[in-house]
Amino acid sequence: MIPDSFADRLRASFPGVNVVHLKGYKELDAQIPDTEVVMTWSLRPEQVKIGRALRWVHSPAAAVHQLIFPELVDNEIILTNARDVHGPVVAEHVMGLIFALAKRIPQAVRLQSQHVWGQKAIWESHPPPRELAGATLGLVGLGSIGREVARHAAGLGMRVIAVREHPEKGRPENVARIYPTAQLDEMLSQSDYVVLAAPTTPATRGLINAQRLAAMKPDAHLINVGRGPLIDDKSLVEALRGRQIAGAALDVFVDEPLPADSPYWDLDNVLITPHTAGLTEKLWDRHYALFSENLRRYLAGETLLGLVNKQEGY
Question: Is 92 one of the annotated active-site residues of the chain?
């Protein structure tokens, strides 16, 4: 939840703006008709319809697929997101997951809880502990997260390759090769670690399915910090159970909180983090820096940061 201090800072910095801090969504229906700017994770289509004064919607998340519906898309309401807030810190989380998988940290933690000195077990595990230098990292998505992951990985001596929907946008400095979406399987077949950092669009829903998992190396790991719907869960569970790939690290899911009966909980080759990739002690300071600058720009009639292309969905 947005802390009280966030709203207090806005009131102090923008005394001419009426800042209303809601504690939950139940109050939104009463406020939305007279609201010009709203900062929210989600809206309903009927709320946009009654939002007669609504001019700008800001999502504190990087994901905006929950806001991509005709009532919001097919009008002049500006949509922005917080991708530049989350990109650097989510990239750090990705590197933490890669280190954990490479050095078999989850296995060591499980052995520790059993009071077992597991050196032999870890050495004989599949795959065994490995070095990151020289390994290949495959990126699906080269937005604010993907570019930062590429920078960190290249600094560790990893070879970074990526697939992007628009290869014509160019190849970032730390990426060795860019593949078009049609060659995703080729990228997957070369990657030791596959990082999903793409938006949810009709083209990316269920992107990692049985066919894609079959293209991956048997000792490769899949990491998802993008969106839950990027993965076909049934196919991934089957691939993990059958040791078709080495394992996965998952921070996002279709249903959150992850249901207690999800098969992911019981798979020993899955590392779960509860959508914490973007959480740091500086989270709301980072949000405030972006939103307050955008509010200044909005009031001055200037172009906003983090603009979302509503037609493309990101």
Answer: no
Tens of pLDDT, residue by residue over 137-162, are: 999 999 999 999 999 999 999 999 99
Side chain identity at 242, as an amino acid letter? Answer: G
Domains of the chain and CATH, by start: 4-81+281-300 (3.40.50.720), 88-272 (3.40.50.720)
Cβ neighbours around 49 below 10 Å, total: 12
For 6-25, the pLDDT digits (tens) are: 999 999 999 999 999 999 89
pTM above 0.85, yes or no: yes
275 is catalytic: yes
Active site residue 71: no
Which residue among 256, 293, 302, 312 is the active-site one? 256
Task: Specify whether the CB–CB gap between 198 and 207 falls below 8 A.
Answer: yes
| Beta carbons within 8 Å of 154's beta carbon, 6+ residues apart | 160, 174, 175
